[in-house]
Design a protein that fits this description.
The protein has helices at about 65-70, 75-90; strands at about 5-10, 10-15, 20-25, 30, 50, 55-60. It has one domain (about 5-90): Sandwich (Jelly Rolls), CATH 2.60.120. By secondary structure, the protein is of the alpha+beta class.
């Protein structure tokens, strides 16, 4: 339930059957944080795994700190959750 920010490097997103889904590159992120009600899209689980391509530096933000950021920057909350929902909907295609 943490949010991961990819600071350097790159990772491959693979589906459960090892099918290629996409990449997460420097500047990208991964988060399970969705709007209330949208969490049921995957029943709190994601049907994929992320594999680093070499050395990748990742910053981890726990939910408590993420909530603090949301209070300070409401637009950030809206933007991040929109990106997360778009990613979840993209994964549903696989």
């Amino acid at each position: 339930m943490n949010t991961y920010f990819f600071l350097e490097g790159e990772a491959i997103i693979l589906g459960l059957n090892e099918e290629f889904i996409g990449y997460i590159k420097s500047g990208g992120h991964y988060s399970n944080d969705l709007e209330d009600g949208n969490e049921l899209i995957f029943d709190y689980k994601r049907p994929f795994h992320i594999v680093s391509k070499g050395i990748t530096k990742v910053g981890i933000l726990n939910n408590e700190k993420l909530k603090d950021l949301y209070i300070a920057f409401p637009k950030f909350k809206e933007t991040l959750r929109t990106l997360n929902l778009n990613f979840a909907n993209y994964l549903l295609k696989f």
